[in-house]
Fold this protein.
Amino acid sequence: MSDSVYKVIELVGSSETSWEEAARNAVERAGQTLRDLRVAEVSKLDMKIENGKIAAFRTRVNLSFKYGGGE
């Protein structure tokens, strides 16, 4: 078994429905271009407010994926 290196990036997902869906949106979108996703950690939750009402739920996610190539 070889040693591995992982990179961590921060993403913000949004949803009109929930924080969970916002997190899912961030991870699924990242999965379209990044390989070997490993761990997603929610670091912050907030909401966008418009005219006194919730317009969107936002979830900040730290996402790790295997760094390097050619295995």
